[in-house]
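Predicting holo structure, GCB bound.
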Amino acid sequence: MRLAVSASVLLAAGLGIGAAAAAQDGYRPLPSAGAPVLDALPAEPGAQGDMPSLIANVAGRQTHSLDGRWQAMVDAYGAGMGDWKAAWRDRTPTRRDEFLEYGFDDAVTLQVPGDFNTQQPALHWLEGSVWYRKQFDFDAKRLRRDGRRVFVHFGAANYRTDVFLNGEPIGSHEGGFTPFQFELTGKLKQGGNRLLVHVDNRRRRDAVPAMGVDWFNYGGLTRSVRLVEVPARHIRDYHLQLSPDDTQQVSGWVWLAPARADVPVKVEVPELGVSFDARTGADGRAAVSFRAPLQLWSPERSRLYRVRVSGAGDTVEDEIGFRSIAVQGERILLNGEPVQLRGVNLHEEIDGRRATSEDDYRRLLEQAKALGANFVRTAHYPFGETFVRLADRMGILLWEEIPVYQGIDFANAGTRQRMQHMLAEMIGRDRNRAAVIMWGIANETAPGDARNAALSALAAQARVQDPTRLVAAAFYGPGFHGARLEMRDPLFPALDVIGANIYYGWYVPWPVAPEEVEWISPGKPLLVSEFGAEARYGRHGAADLASDWNEEFQAEFYRRQFRMIERLPFVQGTLPWVLADFRSPVRMHPHQQGYNRKGLLSESGERKLAWHVVADFYRSRAPMPNLEGVAP
Ligand code: GCB
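Done. Tokens:
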């Protein structure tokens, strides 16, 4: 693929300089010490690597949905992958004495999109594999006659996916939260076809995330599957955003694949009377740059424009908002003005299952809005594309991150490559969404040579792929030296925004009163990217009793945190952990019942006392976002 990723980025990432970062099995809530010096940042963009290059805006193309019921066989130990059972061949007996130990015809069915764990009681705890089969008709002759190409596109599948068409291997993918595609041109038969997908959600030490996560490892075809048809030469991707230094100027590029020089490309914004013509260079890209009297996108006014991109006979329509995001010293500037981020962390979970539909996503975003939030962190992985598009429409700023979470094996070259691919897939999918203001590259990773090199490379990759957004990471909060707090990490120079996950008053007691804390500024915008305590909805008790799981304790926890935060001018935003109680098998206390209970809401949406503390704080802080249509 032709992504301009710096050679030195890939080189630095590939070398795995220094000692191995220890992989760990358990979820670990507290930091470890040690902060070695960072290697020089790789800088020079130029070469490209073997990175994914997906068709952008699949919903805006000619598609054939494969969503719905799929036949499914559970293969908990992965026996069907080898040559012995070879379920992937998807054969049916051809002789009377032929015996096959698999068969989809009598199999159960599962809904796609949807996690497999919550669709059948027997699958609840499955960390293993499921074979999915979809039979569909396709007019391959028409495709050939019209000289078109077709791809099978997966919104996401957790975690490892092996895809087979009519008994032949097509390709594999790793990563549970980002899209991927395989070309099927010339492989689909006229008439009936059988697509087989083996999805394996076993956790692995070398995977991203690795073994220890504090959420439910929902497996399966969790997002939509579609066939996407495009002309032989088509608009593969485009990036159209406001120029960082001029709020009336749009700049970016359109990319036609396969590449050919001198092909005319047009970008139109009919509402503004814009019709911009350009020509591709040898790499298939055409530079775009035009001035227009734009109304800027913001949470208060989430203005989107209909944009039409055409070239080589292909046309794609999109809805794009234009806004700028930058940092100045310790501040974050949205459209040139300092912005206070009233945030909240979300997991992609609703009603005890993986959230997948537009309706699910709207419910989550409406809850965030009702809290008074103008900002959401999609913790700890990219949510569905529909979620991001809804945030664009509803005026919610996003921090989107990849699941580089805690115990990643940074010394492993394969692991580093997986992180790079996930980042490329996330940015490639969402870099035209105004809502996304920062790319998160990691959460709570322990400093070390291999980690520092790998994450610096990721930060540099993010800047090459998208120079218009901020790069952030969340860190374990600092430890106290008396009343003093100071965060340091060799990764800070590579980032625009620093996130501090602080749990004083929960995992660690406050050594001094919150009003007495002296927190030294990191010299960059700081977000309190996580803070929270657990309470079971409906349970009441003393506000100073940590081990009681009561709502009063959780509410008081937030009051104390806000007493500290209010005094810190360099804090540009706060993100309570977390909007709603979410499933996490590591949470074994009888009051947790397999849920992380740090939600401001219960898992069924009931508001705990802490919800009101946060909502009052947000109301007192800033103009409210557009709450049209949201229940108070
Ligand atoms: C964290 C993690 C988050 C956990 C949370 C907790 O620091 O980033 O994934 O769920 O703490 O509740 O312990």
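The longest strand covers residues 246-257.
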